[in-house]
Amino acid sequence: MFAKSVFCLLLTALATPATTAFAPLALQTSVQRSSSTAVFVSSNDDNVFDRRDAFAQATKFVAGIALTTGVIAVPNANAAETSKVVVAGATGQTGRRVLERLAKAGNTEVIGGVRNIDKATKSLGEASTVVRGAMVQQVASVDTSAVNLKRLDVVKDSVDDLAANMAGAQSLVIATGFIPGKNPASWSAACHEVDNVGTIKLIDAAKKTGTVKKIVMVSSILTNGRNWGQEKSPGFVITNVFGGALDEKLVAENYLRQSGIDYTIVRPGGLKSKPPTGALQISAEDTLNSGEISRDLVADVVIASLTDKKANNKILEIIEDDGTPPKVFNGLNM
User: Fold this and answer.
1) Quick count: other Cβ atoms within 10 Å of Cβ 328?
2) Under a CB-based contact definition with an 8 Å cutoff, are residues 18 and 66 in contact?
3) Architecture of the CATH domain 2-333
4) What is the pTM of this model?
5) What is the pLDDT of residues 222-237, one digit of tens each?
6) How far is the C-alpha of 185 from the C-alpha of 257, rounded, in Å?
7) What is the distance between the alpha carbons of residues 6 and 25, in angstroms, rounded to a whole number?
């Protein structure tokens, strides 16, 4: 019954015509590629449903987004300020984009932490077509000649093991995320392991190194939706049905905020694998309940947030301009 209700909900979202959403004033950001040493963790599997792509489809029929009173900009990153970065989630759809940008820097030493080195080497080195739920995605290859792969597993490895492989790093990017398998009965436990416990282990490991001073975490808009009246919104319902992903991410977000380490939490809207077609829009926390964004832009914001002091201890909610002019909502320009 549960599985049937999930797929009915997804089919409804996919079958509903798209409408124009209200959006805050667009802000175009130019993001420089940073030069750094990076460590990555793999958390990706084949032949699985992608809740984020389902969310991207669901948001197309939402009527509007919440009013925001301000827009936060993330300026260019300064490569000189970052010497070694640990990025968890290298073979994931967003993580591999971060990996690609760092690997192409030329003078960047990239250390890839993955669950299975052989599988990750093949996955990163080959272009492929991946089917995720109702989505067919073209996945570009990544030049791994400048990448040194090492094992890091956020589920199986201990905090000590993770910390050992982060030794000497100044920054951590968390781009891991639970990806639902074919059995809905397993989603809740698996999501708890990765998006909650696994993420907290990464934060604890970063603290244990004694050298990590900045953490950038990729989360999702509506993570805190229950606390600002969005519990019944289509985006929240569609996303959270996959193992309670938003609730689990919120626990990890709050843990990071209380960790004592400088942080930036990046909350993207529904994720698109295609290149961006609109300007980047950045808004304050708990303001957006719909919208989509290219994973390319998410990767750019993540890299910029590593060194931009204006992003320190901030939550950035990001979507992509849909190409329409600003709307008027409740008498205010958005």
Assistant:
1) 9
2) no
3) 3-Layer(aba) Sandwich (3.40)
4) 0.74
5) 999 999 999 999 999 9
6) 31
7) 34
